[in-house]
Specification:
Elements: E1 2-6, E2 13-17, E3 27-37, H1 39-50, H2 53-59, H3 61-74, H4 76-87, E4 91-92, E5 96-104, E6 116-120, E7 130-134, E8 138-140, H5 147-150, H6 153-166, E9 173-177, H7 181-192, E10 196-200, H8 204-212, E11 217-219, H9 223-230, E12 236-241, H10 249-256, E13 258-266, H11 276-282, E14 285-288, H12 299-302, H13 317-329, E15 339-344, H14 348-355, E16 363-367, E17 378-380, E18 391-395, H15 399-412, E19 417-421, H16 425-435, E20 439-441, H17 444-448, E21 453-458, H18 465-474, E22 478-481, H19 489-501, E23 506-508, H20 516-528, E24 533-539, H21 557-573, E25 577-583, E26 592-598, E27 603-609, E28 619-625, E29 628-633, E30 637-642, E31 645-650, H22 658-671, H23 679-692
Parallel strand pairs: 9-10, 9-12, 10-11, 12-13, 13-14, 15-16, 18-19, 18-21, 19-20, 21-22, 22-23, 24-27
Antiparallel strand pairs: 1-2, 1-4, 3-5, 3-7, 3-16, 5-6, 6-8, 17-20, 24-28, 25-26, 26-27, 28-29, 29-30, 30-31
Length: 697
Amino acid sequence: MKQVEQNYRSGALRLIDAPAPGAGRGRNLVATRVSLISAGTEKQIIDLAKSSLAGKAMARPDLVRKTLQKVRQEGLIPTARKVFAKLDTPIPLGYSCAGEVIETGSDAGGFAVGDRVACAGAGVANHAEFNAVPKNLTVRIPDGVSDEDASFVTLGAIALQGVRVTAPTLGERVVVLGLGLIGQLTVQLLKANGCRVLGFDPNPARAKLAEEMGADRAVTGDLDDAVAAFTGGHGADAVIVTASSKSSDPLNKAAEISRMKGRVVMVGLTGMAMDREPFYKRELDLRLSMSYGPGRYDPAYEVDGHDYPIAYVRWTEQRNMEAFLELIAAGRVTPSKLVTHRFPIAEAEAAYAMMDGDEPYLAILLTYDAQPGAPERTVAVATAAAGDARGSGFIGFGNYAKSVLLPALQKAGETRLTKVVTSTGISAHSAAERYGFAEASTDARALLDDATTDCVFVATRHDSHAALTIQALNAGKHVFVEKPLAMTHAQLADVAVAADAAPGVLAVGFNRRFAPMVREARDVLARSGGPLVMQYRINAGHIPGDSWVHGSEGGGRIVGEVCHFVDTLSALCGADPVSVEGVSPDGVSDSLAAVIRFADGSVGTIIYASMGDPSLPKEYVEAFGRGVVVRLDDFRKLHITQGGKTRTVSASAQDKGQAALVKAFYDAARNGAPAPVALDTLIAVSAATLDLAGISD
């Protein structure tokens, strides 16, 4: 399928042929008919992508702080690899479109094949021939509303939410600052609410268009005098800022033209350096509008499809989208009047090039073939390396897979990359093109059925690990799956059955036991004889509550990460865990204090804390044997104390064993070496972690 992508590192924008996505649970596959280029928002993204690394850093100082922390913890080179891998991942453009449902997923909102729908959402309602859209970001198009008008649904919901936050009443005088697409729609929505509306924009053509769209007056200058005349000298009841500017002038001008106790509502992206005096002296109410409406930025709503009860949240994103389309059907809003250009999707690059020229534009539409044909979910991208017919493929190819697993695999000796499968076509195409996979796909089955692929790396989100591992093992593949191996005991039991019967090797991403310092510590402790007393302290750091890690895809941090530390203690004592006890602080489910007993009589404690100061190194291990103590300090230093003397081993950069684990897996799969970790140990460590997380099934 044709899709527009933007490289965030180089700024290059292009049209590619990518594999189409599948519908998936909670989603519908939509054949796009029209998509809207949001000139303001997308132009900002494009300009930022074209900026230097310094410019990007200035735009996101929060990410710079996180990167510097990573450098301190992991070293410069590993951090740089991850950062550049992230920057090189292309982003899809577009977030508002209309089309037809051609495939429905399970639990996908009751939509049917053939439904005309409008779709919203960055990363889902893309400029692409096919889009897999979550049910809460999809609405049916009313009869009589054209695809072109419906393609404005996202901008309409943004404008409508801004009006709702303003809470206008009949007859109020409202000023709209900025008459781009959202500003023009805001004018019409305010008129539908019975308001008197004054628009402002320095562009005369946009001011004229606003009056054609229904504004009582629109001006390009002398705003103070215009507002005074428009409001009888009282000032505006409300000012809605829909402008886009790095400057804080729109915010402060809004305060200056407001009446006493008026409202200022921020919808557009502007500076927020507030001049306190006019806000204070007028006792103004400053409000910020949250994009499309309630549900925005909530993965439980947008991704998982959990709606908010209408009795408590009357207007969600989806209900705003529906209301906007109903206003179009009633003739109260006329988006088609804003269209200045139309381009077929094949000429998308020309559409964006026009935005860099001098030709005036406002709403730009991309149009698509009404009969696009069946979606292709696997496309050829590169030429596979010649030689041995066997090769490796990836299911899931996020930052960790591309910056850690793939380099380790190539270092181990792999020269043939067959297929890369991701949930979105743009990421699969990028991975195949950049890293040399022969094909890009959005269909895992295509990889599992590929006779030339003997090694499969599963690097998806946690909830799919067990099922994909079982399918790959049953297909006769050697499988490397990232941790956790499973999210329930039932899944784990099914994996154990499949692995026991399968001819292939199973490896799990428990890499720390392969770290040079852990191996040296294990050898020293093994010579001491007898059971060990061990403790592992992890300063895990905070992960925001809305991260996928905490949701259904991640299963929580205990399942997703503590398995690493259970396995490391198991490696140090050379025995499997047999019993566990764990407790979390009240109200802090992602922290844990645990005691683990191992089969050889050793005991270990794990302190996993999300609440500390992130400047403290992340991991610290102490293990006590007979006459010996080893201390591992964040994989930077290993201290071995025995006979009254301490020997210290230092490293300039962390080595947590990822490359050694992948090499062990590769040697087992291709050269008949033993599996990196015995199946019984993989199952025992995973079961113990599930017990610590309180998962009983």
